[in-house]
Write a structure and sequence with these properties.
The structure holds three protein chains of three kinds. Chain B is mainly α. Helix content of chain B is 75%, strand content 2%. Chain B is globular. Chain C is an all-alpha fold. The chains are: A mainly alpha, B mainly alpha, C mainly alpha. Chains in contact: A-B, A-C, B-C.
């Protein structure tokens, strides 16, 4: 049953093998004379200033968290949309819209609270 | 399912979700009010009104026949009304006790009360579940709100730390719980509790799948009711969380989780094969809770271990596996809710913001009852009832969980239970002794200005404590009616063979 | 090509175990949080597999709720971790032990 995929596996094995061989060859055969200038991130650019591990503003986390929560609510709309037609055909179209309206209303209350409390206010 | 009848059914079933809808919608209204008028003082009273109306509604439905609604996902009837009544009244008491406490700490956020409402919605769903999906949803709605409520006092390192512990361990146990549901679902092919019992577990591997899943499921539940050996989080979380909310956590959560556990045991696994494992957990829980409580110097930590011990007593009733055992457990949950919310309520009135954080050691409260006689005497009643001293509610409660276990042949279990509650008299009476008999001069280094820093006791909060104390006396003397009601939930054939 | 449901179940059991060990042995609160999410997603895989192989939709129904709950838990968990980090400047859970006696 895996027969159809043999060429694909061969291809992956070849690509991996080639890449690893080249990397290994470069490390062993190539000359290695590191200097401070050479190991800089941008060899012929500006001198880097400060650390690369800068802390993000907490605001960023806040927006990310709000995004996760609102984003995931779509999982409930997807099955709703998928079964919408069968509900309409059985004459329950208005009811099914009412249900999603209630759901959206609850989400809107959350959004309203968020906006009012300044959760989406980037200027602060 | 015929889709054209789906919405008429939904609409006719709506009254069954009355409490859930009222509490949830008022919670949303509180959020909106808070968004426009930050921390408006009317917010807690909105909650009190909603919880009061819902509790009155549930009280009129105590005799309702048992059936299922919303396509067999939720149950209605006396059992559900009884559990909802406990949850709603506990929520009501919590809000009344929180108002002076949070005002004192200047953390009287409107969101706190809204979160209490949402958590209550989750508990109601948990206590009326007839389907694994409802159980999971109720449990998580409740828990996520409680994680936030534990840690919302951000300046207090202890509170945030206990929130982290509660959250990490809670989420971990959720994983096991959900995996258990998945395996039971795989073995039976259904999420509905009664259908699970009816499913044929033909082959050995199917049986293994089911019982393995059920074991994982129980681990999740034992964690939520803080039964040993899954109790590790309880002392730290109860100590760090804001005191009135600790009371809420230790009472309403347990009532809802135990109710769901009873529903699962009665409907999904009625065979009683689990009896010995539950009995073993009960022994461990009673022993660890009571022995560890002996050494505590912090009252909140002491009450945390005591609440572990009391989960053990309820488990004794469950392990009997009979109608009388379940009915006794329900009665015990009611009594326990009243006395524990009261005990934590008293402690929330006796707390101040010291240099070392919120101070709660027992010795710092020496002789406090002489300054605050109402708090002292109600605390005395709560402590005596927690011991199980007749004629208070705690005595009747213990009798009605222990007696069915003896009838079921678990005499050894009851012997351990009685010994452990005798042991518990030591630490409960020590609290009473320090409150009444000692004076501030007997102990070194009490804060001289402590009385000035206590939360100002409002009429509503003091009234709640007095009502709890009186209720314990009433429950201890006139237990017959309540017990008959709870017995009725399990005697009726509707409960046993619901669709 | 059809893969037998047992393989999915085995994969999800392995993922669940990895998640469990992650929770038990990692010290960084964020990594513990990620391990919990891994556990929940492993269960989702189990549920979908059972649901698909038995032709019963209620397993997938629970998965929708479980995804939403996992998102809510992640948001609350991150908020708590940030609150801890503000006061302690560490997210190492072995250093968060105010109540140890």
């Amino acid at each position: 049953m895996f027969g159809d995929f043999v060429p694909l596996f061969l291809m992956i094995a070849l690509a991996l093998g080639l890449a690893l061989t080249l990397l290994a060859a470069a490390a062993y055969i190539g000359p290695s004379r590191p200097s401070e200038t050479k190991t800089m991130p941008y060899e012929s650019g500006m001198d880097p200033v400060g650390s690369a591990h800068e802390r993000y503003s907490v605001k960023f986390y806040l927006v990310a968290m709000i995004f996760i929560v609102f984003d995931v609510e779509v999982v409930f709309m997807w099955p709703w949309a998928a079964s919408f037609h069968s509900f309409v055909e059985s004459g329950a179209g208005l009811g099914v819209i009412a249900v999603l309206s209630l759901f959206t209303f609850i989400l809107l209350v959350g959004l309203l609270y968020d906006v009012k409390k300044g959760g989406l206010d980037f200027e602060q | 399912m015929d889709l054209s009848t789906a919405f008429p059914t939904l609409v006719t079933d709506l009254p069954a979700a009355f409490s859930m809808s009222v509490v949830g919608l008022v919670g949303l209204a509180m959020i909106v009010l808070d968004a426009f008028r930050n921390d408006h003082p009317a917010i807690p009273w909105l909650g009190v009104a909603a919880l009061g109306v819902s509790a009155a509604w549930e009280a009129t439905h105590l005799g309702a026949p048992q059936s299922t609604v919303f396509f067999e996902t939720l149950r209605t009837g006396g059992f559900v009304a009884f559990i909802n009544l406990i949850i709603l009244l506990t929520g009501l008491a919590t809000i009344l006790l929180s108002v002076p406490y949070l005002n004192q700490l200047r953390y009287d956020y409107g969101e706190v009360y809204a979160l209490i409402m949402f958590s209550t919605v989750g508990m109601i769903m948990l206590g009326s579940a007839n389907n694994m999906v409802s159980i999971f949803l109720g449990l998580e709605t409740m828990s996520v709100c409680l994680y936030v409520l534990t840690g919302f006092i951000r300046e207090d390192e202890g509170a945030v730390e206990s929130a982290l512990k509660y959250f990490l361990l809670g989420a971990f146990s959720t994983g096991f719980f959900l995996y258990g549901i998945a395996l039971m679902y795989g073995a039976t092919g259904t999420m509905a509790l009664p259908a699970m019992a009816a499913a044929e577990l033909g082959t050995l591997s199917t049986r293994l799948l089911f019982w393995g899943g059920f074991a994982l499921f129980l681990v999740g539940f034992f964690f939520k009711v803080s039964a040993a050996p899954f109790h590790m989080w309880t002392p730290d979380v109860y100590q760090g969380a804001p005191t009135p909310l600790t009371g809420y956590m230790s009472t309403a959560t347990k009532a809802a989780a135990f109710a769901a556990l009873i529903l699962v045991l009665v409907h999904a696994v009625p065979g009683g094969e689990w009896q010995l494992s539950v009995a073993a957990v009960a022994v461990l829980t009673m022993v660890i809770g009571n022995v560890m409580a002996l050494a505590q110097t912090n009252v909140k930590r002491l009450l945390a271990y005591s609440s572990i011990a009391h989960a053990g007593y309820v488990l004794v009733g469950l392990s009997a596996g009979t109608s009388a055992g379940y009915a006794g457990a329900l009665f015990y949950l009611l009594v326990y809710a009243v006395m524990n919310i009261g005990a934590f309520g008293v402690m929330s009135m006796l707390e101040w913001d010291g240099k070392e954080g919120r101070e709660q050691t027992l010795s710092s409260l020496a002789g406090i009852a002489n300054d605050r006689p109402v708090l002292g005497s109600t605390m005395g009643i709560f402590m005596l009832s927690l011991i199980g001293f007749p004629p208070l509610g705690g005595f009747a409660g213990k009798y009605f969980v222990f007696a069915p276990a003896v009838d079921a042949g678990l005499t050894w279990l009851v012997v351990i239970g009685v010994l452990m509650s005798a042991l518990s008299a030591y630490y409960y009476l020590r609290v009473v002794y320090v409150f009444w008999m000692q004076s501030a001069d007997d102990v070194e280094a009490t804060d001289p200005v402590r009385a000035a820093a206590f939360p100002r006791a409002t009429v509503a909060a003091t009234g709640t404590l007095v009502v709890c104390a009186v209720a314990l006396v009433v429950l201890g003397v006139f237990f017959g009616g309540v017990l008959e009601t709870t017995l009725g939930f399990f005697e009726s054939t509707a409960m046993a063979t619901a669709p | 090509m059809d893969v037998a449901p047992n393989w999915y179940l085995a994969l999800s059991a392995v993922l669940f175990t990895i998640g469990t060990f992650g929770v038990l042995f990692r010290r960084n609160a964020i990594v513990v949080l990620m391990s919990v999410e891994l556990m929940l997603n492993a269960v989702n895989l189990t549920l979908v597999t059972f649901s698909q192989s038995m032709g019963d939709p209620s397993g997938q129904l629970l998965v929708f709720f479980s995804i939403a709950v996992a998102a809510a838990e992640a948001a609350v968990g991150l908020a708590i971790v940030i609150a801890i980090f503000r006061s302690k400047v560490t997210v190492d859970i072995t250093e968060i032990n105010l109540f140890k006696h």
